[in-house]
Amino acid sequence: MNRIRRPVVGLMITAAALAGCSNTPVPSAAPPSPSVVSSSWIPAPEQTIAENALQVYRQYWQLSEEAEASPGSQDWRTSFAHLMADPALTTFVDELAKLASIPAHSTGGYRRSPKVQSVATAEPARVVIVDYLDASANHLVSERLGEAGKNLDNPAQPHRYLLEAEVVRYPAPYRWLVQIIRLCWEQTC
User: Fold this and answer.
1) Angle (nearest 5°) at CA 24 between 20 and 28
2) For 115-150, what is each residue's pLDDT tens digit?
3) Residue 52's CB: how many other CB atoms inside 10 A?
4) SS3 at position 179
5) With pLDDT > 90 as the criterion, what percentage of the chain qualifies?
6) How many CB atoms lie within 10 A of CB 75?
7) Among 38, 103, 133, 149, which residue's beta carbon has the most beta carbons within 10 A?
8) In the chain, how many H helices and how many E strands?
9) What is the domain class of 7-20+33-184 according to CATH?
């Protein structure tokens, strides 16, 4: 049980580790506000693409925190299918099922600072988002009979780390989906 991280986002590292993280430098100063897209380096057409990708990324986070708080309450694949694509979709839904089987759920939440790292306009358009997560207030809590409310956090895992997400625009109909999630435990912030 201690191998389970601040719920599903951390559980996804097992699969995501194969993809690896880029050599994104970790800033020494506080990360930017999550509601701001840094437009100083993004030309106008790419700015619209970046904003669309960030909107889907934020929706993914809103739904993922709801799912982590109640992983066994429904079949989450249908709910996430309008926000995610494989491989991220299957990995995330599988990890939610593991969380529900423990049984456990997440309490609290993440502080996030998403920022667009790159925009590729060639079809399919792709946006890489880096997000500095602070999971200090997020805890994995047991639902097992006799252990209900017991904290299952792994103390060896960092509370602050980098996440990279790739959001891709899929055709027919055009829609943005989170396709890849990479957790970079070694890049703390």
Assistant:
1) 135
2) 999 999 998 999 999 999 999 999 999 999 899 889
3) 17
4) strand
5) 62
6) 11
7) 133
8) 5, 6
9) alpha beta
